[in-house]
Each structure stands twice: as structure tokens, then as C-alpha cells.
């Protein structure tokens, strides 16, 4: 399955759509000039195309497996990991003092998306390390940072996140893993964790687990949770992996897809761990990890969608069937063309949302301005949920282009569909993202949302001269979204917000998509970008109306039927 | 995975929503009294629950396989087939003179849907036989009927459809299989056929293939195709399976789902076949098979969706997570409840569309009135495409309810999602269905569509007194659909219709869903049905507007980007 990294798409987005020049103009990211960015994207793209893409099928056909307690990864994955590590791609945004490149999260996000398009199951491994690096950087002691960060950034060691337990999924606060002080500054961690992505491998010297557990004096719920760093091998005095810690992979899950990525059940039996952050302050550290990972998972959705799209486009341009003009392929049929255009337009929009979110994170980092932080916080759940939602439906559409072959594994179309499905589930389900959007992210009374809508409307006003219909449609949709936002904010019972959270998030994404497409049209007034924008705004943006009706319906009717009546 | 056949749902639909009393009032179906119908549904439901549902996981975990050319089916499938056959379920609508029950297609459709919910991969086997029975009944010689129909109806023998070839999928006319007269009234059939569902098994005495092939004097394209009955074993003088015919299963496809159903590559090397219908008249016979199968596949989508829904509902009612009221389970969370209500409302609507289509087929059979035939023809592509589309998205939603467990095969949620996906692809992709709707089914200038819309609006008028808002919304939506229908009919370039075919079909289904929900509300004014209708009409029906905007956009913008630009 050949894969072509969408480098030109990123160059266009950064230059014309999401205003990356603002990021590059800051002192913090002064090195991220246009040339540097292009060079980095090109180099990463090459690695994705040449090293990672050939591994995509390996992971599916030869899943990671556990042999007598030893984890064996898919053929070629060790070499893939090495290439990612040696290219410096794990540490793109990591601090330079520890060996990272110190570049904007915008670039990290772009590279992650490209790696996801090339081989999603392998990309999840560095993504886990990246989350750990960021959490340690923000919350760990200097000693821990000195020891772990260089190894994690170089890829000699790898990182994982251990949050979920059988009875504690979305409700992390219900966890029962325990941490007992050893008296020497370390802690004995015990408990079982499930759904641990890349919980082990056979290519990094050490595997470092960030584990949420409760200290003896930790209260029930999230406020009593602490975060611990628990390495597979305890570093010796020289910092090399020493004796094995008291932890093990109990089993691997048999999943619907993403077979190349081992999903582990982990058992900790008094394993030695080091506290990260404050006692009982685990949730704050976890959110650092999670926010990074959420944006990354949004990129996984978009990346897998891109891979699926390219695959379907290639098939459509080769497969001859029925009477058609032009190339004589199915790519000339109106319905196939509609599917191709839809995928292309959706990917552009989702990618722009990712980039806008990443850019806001960078601006917050560089300027310390609260407004950028609020923008990033607002966009993160949308980038995660919509990147994955649209990625799943692009993969579904791509499979449809293949007709009967799409259901046959040999075609590869099915793998994209199976693999990407998990992205709507893990790292906080898309329902959880939507609830985050309408609750936590609206604690400002909708200020951040309204500020973004102001920008969208002002931009639409500027575009009216060139694209009166498109600009008008975007303006109207933004205004309807604003009314729904106000409506949500006026609801005192949070359940009335939750009831419409998912459709609201989707409508928000639709409006953002229209906005970014309009920006693309302005930058390419006579070209393909403007035509794609017209397609999106006339055909896909109108979905926002139905979604907003759903978003504003309130909670009462959801409970009109009891669970018994739902079963009747 | 326990499964409960939705018999009460069918009883309600038949009595209150789709007017089955009209069918039962005809001479042809006078036996189908309310009591008889209930007894039959109950008996079939029992078989589905007790015999078929326990096989669902077997098919997935132990796929059908080919051992030295011999096909071995999944554990228990032979017993399952036997139970289906002995219950008479293959011949529900087959002629009584050959051992069938002669009952309405409405009942057949209901039973097929229930069997699909219990075990989709096994259900596909009788569905293939049913299509063959109908094709033979309509087009075969008396001698063929006498020999084959009783065996097919009793399930001693089974049937398949052989249409697709590697270069001839949606474009059946491109096929290259050949038929040469043997001089004794039989033909020698040669060629390769792919995607043959249940192309062989180890539980029926004989496997009868209906094969499309071209006679030496057959012109190119669909007009030169003939249909042949080609049995695995050639019947001897006593009608028993005799010598093996020159055909074989070359290989089985490795599919994304539906593992219990063997999808065969078939090779015919001068196999002896008997002509069905006229020489070069294969397409007509094929459409008889296909129309039956299309409605059946729509039922597969709804059935699999029902199975997935029940599974998710059971999980939601057990899984404790987070702070909730009521049962203390995730079923009390607004977003989960939204998903449950959505699934319930979607399944009701899709099932009503199936029943309305089946009822129209029965009325056409019983009365011979062209209007009923036109109604059935109009509803068939909608029933197929929407039954499967909504089934897929119900299965996706059900998987989402499971959270992380949904991606783990052990939960069973993933299997529904993987299995049902093919229903949008086979038996004519959903794109093909939509094109059929806007082209062939509009050759009457939209008369059948407008007649149905008249009924929907008149019904909404009647409902205004009790449900002013709901009735108003349905009326408005129907009117907008009418405008879109008129717009489509006014397009001279068929490509302008094809460009919006899929969203048009979806919008049509949404309006039909609103209509049937409104009928349900009228029959249960203070009850759960009315509440579910309010949910559907206020939250899901509004999607029609966005879909209709998409439907009326025309073809030009689809070709605004070349295939090269789509790849750029």
C-alpha cells in the first residue's frame, strides 16, 4: 500500500489557513521558519513513506504476541521504531536541553498525523512516549527528568500510560491500584491496569510506565490519586536498566484492529515507582498527558483517513467498471466522485482543526496569554472527537469505493476501517470529549467559543466580496452555532447540555470546517482549493442545522423511556 | 450473547403502522390472520433465540474453511441449517404446491430480519435459497420447478447466486462466463465467479448454482446474458444427487467479518447447466432474485443492528461507571441514553420501511395493481440501502456504548460492526441502490414518489390534532422532499441526479421514518411509542434538510477537481 505524506497540504495549511506565521514570529519558536518547517515535514514524510508505510500490513497480518511472558512485536516494527527514534521524531517538541528539537506542537501534530497515515499501530508507540515526556517535563523532579527524559526522547526507552482498570474507565477516580511508601522515597505499586497500549515491546531497552494509584491516605475519587513512574527495569547507578521490576504483562487483548499495537493487561505487585508531581496530584499530571494524547489521537483519525483516502483514490483511478467518460475508470462515476470529493474535503477540514488547535497550544506556550490557552482547551476535544469521527467515516467511505473488494482483507481497505475505529473510543471516548466541550470548556460562560465565532464571522465578512454565497453560508452557520452555544450556556442543569453534547461538537466542527475552507478559497481564488471549499460549504456544512436541532433538544426526552421500556 | 426476537415490535408494526390488515384482507393471503401471523412470528422468534443466536460467535471464532477442496462450516451451523429448514422457514413465501407456506413476503421479511439478528452469517444461507426459489418459480420450466423447488424449499438442497466476476461487479454486463449448448437441451458452463456467498457447505445434499453466462450468440453487455441452473451434483433419474458436476470452490475469501459465511471463488469447467428463462433473458431472471435479495439484505442490516442494540442495552444496564442516578449504571448518563434512544428510534424506522416495502410487494402479488408494484419498486432500494446504512451506524453506536470493551472482540460488539458492514456493499452497493432510486424508479416522472408523499402529508394532516408539532415537522419535511424530487426529475442530465442520489435516498428514508413514527404515536398516544416518535422527529428527522441541500447540488462541482487534483 503506497502512501504519500501530505506535505504540500501541510505547507498550504500553515501558510494560508491557520496562521502559523504568528507562531514563527514568537521568540520561543523563532527557529521554526518556513524553510525549516518545510525541511522537517519533508524529512518526516520521507520516513513515513519509506519506512513506516511498508509496515502497515505486517502489523495486521502478524500481530504482536506474548510468548512465555515475552512480547514479540510485528515484523519490521523494531526497525520502524529505530527509524522514528533516530530521526528525532519522538522529541520534536521535547526540550532541547534533554535532546529534543524544541519545535512547535504544530509540527509534532503534523508529523504524528503523517506517521498515523503510514502505519497507525506503530505510530501509537512514539505517541505514548510523547505524552510521557510532556508529563515528566511538567511535573517530575529534576532528578527524574535528568535520568528519564534523554532516554525517552532518544527512543532508547519508551513510555506508556496506565490509567484504566476494569472498574475504572471513563471514571478514573474509581481506580483501586495502591501505592505504599517504601521509606526510601520510592513507592510500592500494586494493582491491575487494562488497555495499556504498547505496554511492552522488544525494541526499547526499558519501558517506563506512568501509573495512577492511590496512596494509603488518598481520599476516594480523583482527588486521592497520585502518579508514579514505574520502569520495567529499575535503573542502576549508571542509569542503565538494572534489575527487573515487579510488574508483568499478563495478557494481550484480542482486538478488532490495530493488531500491530499490543494492548496489555499489566500486573503490578509491589513494583518500585517514583512519584511524579505532588502526592494526590495525579489528575493534573494525567491531564497534561491526556491533552497531548487527545490532539495526537485526533491526528490518528485524520492520518488513518488520509491513508484510506489515498488507497481508495488509487483504486478508483484504476478500476474499470461500467460506462464512463474520461479515464474510463470508476473515478468518473458521479457517486464515486462524490465520495472522493467528500473524503478530500473532510480531510482538509479535520486537518485544519488539528492545526488550529496545535497552533493555539504553541501560542499559549510562547506568549503565556490566557486567551490562547483557552482557545487550545476549547479546540482539543473537537480536534480529538472530530478528527476521529471524520477519520472513521472517511475510512468507511473509502471502503465503499472498493465495492466488494472493500470487505476483503487483501485489499487493505478493511484494515483502515478496523484500525481507526478505536480512535473514537480511547483517550476519552468521543462522548467524553463532547461533555468536556459543553461543561469544562464552557465554564467561561462561552467566552472562548464566542471569541472564536467572532473571528469566524469577521473572516466571513472579509470574504464576502470574493465569495458572497460561501461567505454568507459560513456566517449564517456561525451565527446559528452561537445561538446554540448561548442556549447551552443558559442551561442550569448540566444534563441538558450533555444531552446535546455530541451533536453540538459535530456542528461546531462543521462550522470550523466551513471557516477553514473559506480561508483556503481566499488563498487560491481561482484554483482547486476554492472549488473544494464550494463543495464543502454547499454540501457538508448544511448538516450543521440538523445537528444543532439535536444539540438544543435538552435532556428530558432522553429519559422519556425507562431502560425497561428501551428493552421492550 | 442472548438475543430476544422483536416479535412484539413486529406485531405492533403490522397492526398499527404499515397496514398489514390490507394484505390479510386479500384472497391471496386470507390465511394470514392476526393470530396466524403472531403464531408464526413467535415460533420463528423462538428458533432464532434458541438455535441461531448461540451460533453467532461460533461463526466468527471458527470460520468456514476449505480442506482439500471440501468445505467445512462453522460448528453448529449444520444443526442450525437443519432447524431453519425443518421449521419451514426457507419456504415461508414459497408456493404451497412445492411444499412452501405460501405466506406473505411481509412475514418472510420479518423472519429474515430476526434470523439476521440472531446469526447473520448463517441467515445468509437460507436467504440465498429464497432468492433462487423465487427466480425458479418465476422463470424456470415446469420440469426444473418440479425437480428443484421441493428440495430447495425443504432445505435438503441449497441455492446460490453466481453473478460477479473479477472484471464484472456492479457492471454485470461485462461478464465473460460462457455457455455452450450440449445438444441435449443442457449447456456447458465455463468461467470463474467471485464473491459467491455460501458457494458450498457440508450440510445440504446438493448445492444449486444460478449462474449468469453468455451463449455463443449472446451480444455484448447485459442483453446477451442468460441464466443457468448448475447443480453441484447432477440429479439422477430418481432426482437424487448423482455424479459430481464440473465445478469447484477454488478458494474462500478472507473477509473483515461474516466469517461464518463462506465467500467462494467458483470455477466452472464445462459444468452441465439448465437454462432458466429465455435465452439472453438472464437479466430479467436476475432481477427477480436481486429484488428479493435486496429487501432481504435491508433486513440483514436492521437485524444485525437489533442484535447490536440489545447487546449494548444489556451492557449499559449493567456497567457501573461514574456518578449516575437511577440504576447507577451508565444507562443513566445522558449521552449513553441519547445513543440508546437513537438506536431504538432508528431501528423502529428502518424496520417500518422494510415492512412497508414488503407489504407493497404482497399487495402487488395479491391484487396485481400496478400502483402497488410501483410502490414496492420505489421502496426496495430505500429498504436495502437505509436498512443497511442505519444498521451499520446502530452497530457503530452500540460499539461506542461499550467504550474500550467495544474494540475487544470478546465483547461481541465488534463482531456486529464487522459483520454488518458488508450489507452496504453486496447485493448492489448502496450507491447503486441510490442510483436505481433516482433513475429507474423515477422513470414515471416521480409519480410513485409523489403518491407516497401525498399519503404522508395526508396522514400528517390527520395527526395535527393530537401532535401538532410532530405532524407539522413531518409535513414540512415531506414537502421539502417533494421539492427535491421534482428538482431531480427536472434534471435532463442523469449525472445531475446521480450526484445527489445517496443523500436523496437518505433524506427519503428520514421522511419515511418520521411518517412511521408519527403513525406509531397515533396508535399509542400517551405511551412509549409517542415519546420515541417525538425523539425521532425532533432530533433525527431534521437531518433531512442538510441531506436535501446535498441532493440538489448537481454534478458540476463533483468534477471541479480532476482525479489528478484529487491526488494533489
TrEMBL record, chains A, B:
Acyl-CoA oxidase/dehydrogenase middle domain span: 161-269
Top EC class of this enzyme: oxidoreductase
Domain Acyl-CoA dehydrogenase/oxidase N-terminal: 78-156
Boundaries of every Acetyl-CoA dehydrogenase-like C-terminal domain copy: 452-561
Any Pfam family hit: Acyl-CoA_dh_M
EC numbers on record: 1.3.99.41
Catalytic reaction(s) noted: 3-(methylsulfanyl)propanoyl-CoA + oxidized [electron-transfer flavoprotein] + H(+) = 3-(methylsulfanyl)acryloyl-CoA + reduced [electron-transfer flavoprotein]
Acyl-CoA dehydrogenase/oxidase C-terminal domain mapped to chain residues: 281-440
Keywords: FAD, Flavoprotein, Oxidoreductase
Top-rank lineage group of the source organism: Bacteria
Cofactor(s) for this UniProt protein: FAD
Protein family per UniProt: Belongs to the acyl-CoA dehydrogenase family.
Function: Involved in the assimilation of dimethylsulphoniopropionate (DMSP), an important compound in the fixation of carbon in marine phytoplankton, by mediating the conversion of 3-(methylthio)propanoyl-CoA (MMPA-CoA) to 3-(methylthio)acryloyl-CoA (MTA-CoA).
Name of this chain's protein: 3-methylmercaptopropionyl-CoA dehydrogenase
Organism: Seohaeicola zhoushanensis
